[in-house]
Amino acid sequence: MTDERAIDVLLETVSDAVWIVAPSLEVVRANAPFAALAIDMREPWWRDLCARVLAGRGVAAPARIGERTYAITANPLQENAGAVFVARELTETRVERDDLLELAVTRIFATDKPLAATLVDVLEFLCESDGWDYGALRIGSDAAPPAAPIATPIATPIATWTRPDANVDLAEAPATVSLRAADRLVGVLELRPSRGGHPRALERAGGSLARLIERHRLLEAIERKGQEWSLTFDAIELPIFITRVDGTIARVNRAARDLAGAEFESVVGRPIAIDAREPWRTLADVVAAVRDSRTPCTAQLTDNTRTWDVSASWFRSASDDDERVIIVMRDVTTVIELQESVRRGEQLAALGELVAGVAHEVRNPIFGMGLTVDALQSMLPDDDDFNELAGVLRTWLDRLNRLMESLLEYGRTWTLELRGGTLGDVLPPVIDGCRQIAAQSSVAIETAIEPDLAMLLDPSRLTHAFENLITNAIQHSSAGDRVVISARALRDGGRDVIECAVRDEGPGFSPSDLPRVFQPFFTRRRGGTGLGLSIVQRIVDEHGGTVSAGNAEGGGAVVTMRFPAWREWSTTRTNEPTTS
Amino acid sequence: MVHDTNERTHHILIVDDEELIVLAMRKYFEGLGYRVDAAHELEEAQALLANRAYDLVIADLRLTGIGGVEGLQIVSDVHQRHAHTRVILLSAFGTPEIERESYNRGADAFLHKPKAMMEIANVAMNLLEQS
Asked: Which residues have CB under 8 Å from A128's CB, separation 6+?
């Protein structure tokens, strides 16, 4: 085989396009892949490339031919016989490089560097990964206009970068690329190609860089908006679910996540009918109702501890034309409790009225019976047996009468007259009033009452409550026991409260009785009406307080009341004039 | 008998719509030696008062249905006719306002039911001794 023949065989077996150009620029030899290239020989870049190679310089340059990118290497033949060109398709390589570039840009942007430094990094990467020598690069300031014609120097470059080993050929025309991001000129990239760098290739590089910057900024903006939206969404205290019409949860806010609880780490993407329990059951029903009717829908549900008002509405998402159901839940537990409390109060008032009415009507007959016994006794001989039995009859009548008085007291509708005052104003007279009964039972009364315990109070009502409690304590005490009345200010759950306790040294409450001691008519004391503590509870309730019963550590019963402290009043009272 | 009745000839009018209460009180005060008349309603009491100057009138505040305060009218009538006649009002539901009003009209005592007969009698005897 001759050398010539061997070259032909070689040319036809490679996949790269290979061709030889004569000094006349005529293609004198080429293989089959070259024919597929279809190079337009009138293109300036082609003429430029040929000129450089025929001048005796080896050139390597990228070229965009048709839809594909090629790496073209060209070397002059000996004795000015022309030049040999090899074109290798780079499209695949190019795609990879773009991916790499994007990755690099993302990484570089993630370092929080200033834009200029970032661009330098990106360009350095471009040069290194591309294998091209772009020579000197200059990045213009924001204010600089897109530099065309190219020769215009950029007044205030925000960064300059020169590749250390760049062989800058000033004779070559530099390429300038505007860097724009979100319609704003962010810089001008001036690239001076050397050794085969091609202006178009540079423009592409600049263009892709600008696109990446823009995309990055856009993503940043979207992310920021998304974060703002999420923060706002999360800041709403009402649980909000956004579902697709099939019930799949698309979005939730923090309150909704909290509602779902730790049990369901991520509810997004799950059907709203997470399980058969509440609230999911009702929420699923609501979504179905909204989906079917395309109208807003409301419901109320009760889960383990809370009651929720649920409102759901339908909307079409503008972005993806998809249908959504938005569910907003409102915790109405407190409202419901208040309503119940008001209803209980009304029931109690109605019951009270009835009871008081009955008690009132019963009073007269009791009075009549008492008078009759008195009259009878006054007319009969002074007989011991008869007197004893008349006494028994009177004892029963007294007891009946006390019950009626208690019922009247319990059922009476009061107009509460709350005013600012201190426990120190109310307690001492009550305690003094009880000392006589205490002395009769040989019970000592001790007090530990802090001064200036200010609260809103109705003195006569509160007096009545304390009378009941202290008398009760004395009645449950044995001779020699003490009854201790204490009152102090304290903080409870961020609120200022006044705690007042009446403690005795009697047998205390039986644990099984504790839940019932405030129920009307519950008593363990013979002859007791069982209304004493109920009346106390009612009065404490009227004062916005709470009352609880228990046993003291050392034995004996203790009834503890807590009232809201009235700070405004005590503040104005204790405020000293300031001198400054 | 606890009480000495020899010198008591005072005339008492008892007014109460409860016949049985009137009965018990009449027996009791008669037992103490008083002369006792009784009335069950306002008009009846007014008729008796027009005929006689009693030493003492013991009247229930309410002689008719709920909310009645006929006793106050009796106090006024007594006060107009017989200045020396003493009046005790009895009430099961007297408010402080009504009590005040009864004193304004000239009542001598306002007693809240229930009261033992002896308490009522003590008040009555004190008033009669003063007159």
From this structure: none
pLDDT confidence band for A195 (50 / 70 / 90): very low
A179: confidence class by pLDDT, cuts 50, 70, 90: low
The total domain count for chain B is 1
The yes-or-no verdict on residue A275 having pLDDT over 60 is yes
How close B130 gets to chain A, by Cα (Å)?
24
Q: Is residue A221's pLDDT more than 60?
A: yes
Residue of B2, B27, B120 to mutate, interface with A, max A Cβ within 10 Å: B27
CATH number of the domain within which B99 lies: 3.40.50.2300
What pLDDT digit, counting tens, does each position of A435-481 carry? 998 999 999 999 999 988 999 899 988 998 999 999 999 999 999 99
- % of chain A beyond a pLDDT of 70: 71
A370 neighbourhood in chain B, CB within 8 Å = 114, 116-117
Chain B residue with the nearest C-alpha to that of A380: B1
Domain ranges of chain A: 3-89, 93-230, 236-331, 336-411, 419-571
Nearest residue of B to residue A402 by CA position?
B114
For residues A537-562, give the mean pLDDT: 89
Mean pLDDT, rounded, of chain A: 75
Query: Residues A120, A159: contact at Cβ < 8 Å?
Result: yes
Q: How many helices (H) and strands (E) does chain A have?
A: 14, 21
Residue B131, domain member (yes or no): no
Q: Phi and psi dihedrals of A119, rounded to 5?
A: -60, -40
- Does ipTM surpass 0.85 in this model? no
What architecture (CATH level 2) is domain A236-331? 2-Layer Sandwich (3.30)
Tell me if B4 is assigned to some domain. Answer: no
- Of all residues in chain A, the one with the smallest CA distance to B31 is A379
Residue B80 lies in a domain: yes
| pLDDT confidence of residue B6 | 41
- CB spacing of B117 vs A360 below 8 angstroms: no
- CATH number of the structural domain A93-230: 3.30.450
CB distance from B113 to chain A under 8 Å?
A: yes
Q: Looking at the complex, does the CB of residue B50 fall below 8 Å from at least one CB of chain A?
A: no
Do domains A93-230 and A419-571 share one topology? The answer is: no
B115 contacts B90 by C-beta, under 8 angstroms: yes
Expressed as residue numbers, the domain containing B36 is 11-108
Q: Is the dihedral of CA B116, B120, B126, B129 positive or negative?
A: negative
The answer as to CATH 1.10.10 being correct for domain A336-411 is no
Is B16 inside any structural domain?
A: yes
User: Residue A377: left if φ>0, alpha if ψ -120 to 50, beta else—which one?
Assistant: alpha
What class, spelled out in words, does domain A419-571 have in CATH? Answer: alpha beta
Query: Is B28–A378 a contact, with Cβ atoms under 8 angstroms apart?
Result: yes
**Percent of chain A whose pLDDT exceeds 90:** 13
Determine the distance in angstroms separating the CA of B80 from the nearest CA of chain A, rounded to an integer. 30
| Cα distances (angstroms) measured from residue A564 to each of A94, A335, A455, A495, A538 | 76, 20, 7, 8, 16
CB contacts, 8 Å: A382 with chain B: 2
- CB distance A478 to A506 below 8 Å: yes
Best residue of A369, A371, A394 to probe chain B, by most B CBs closer than 10 Å? A371
Contacts of B113 in chain A (CB under 8 A): 363-364, 367
Binary contact (A363, B92; C-beta < 8 A): yes
Q: How confident is the model at residue A99 (pLDDT cuts 50, 70, 90)?
A: low
Could you name the CATH architecture of A3-89? 2-Layer Sandwich (3.30)
Quick one: pLDDT at residue A319? Answer: 62
Q: How far apart are CA B27 and CA B14, in angstroms?
A: 11
Q: Which of A360, A378, A401 sits opposite B2 (nearest CB)?
A: A378
If you average pLDDT over residues A349-376, what whole number do you get?
Answer: 83
Query: What residue of A is the nearest CA neighbor of B20?
Result: A368
* Chain A residue with minimum CA distance to B3: A378
Nearest to B113 among A364, A378, A382 (CB): A364
Tokens 């263009």 belong to: A207
Distance CA B87, CA B15 (A): 11
Rounded to an integer, the average pLDDT of A214-218 is: 64
Between B30 and A2, name the one with better pLDDT. Answer: B30
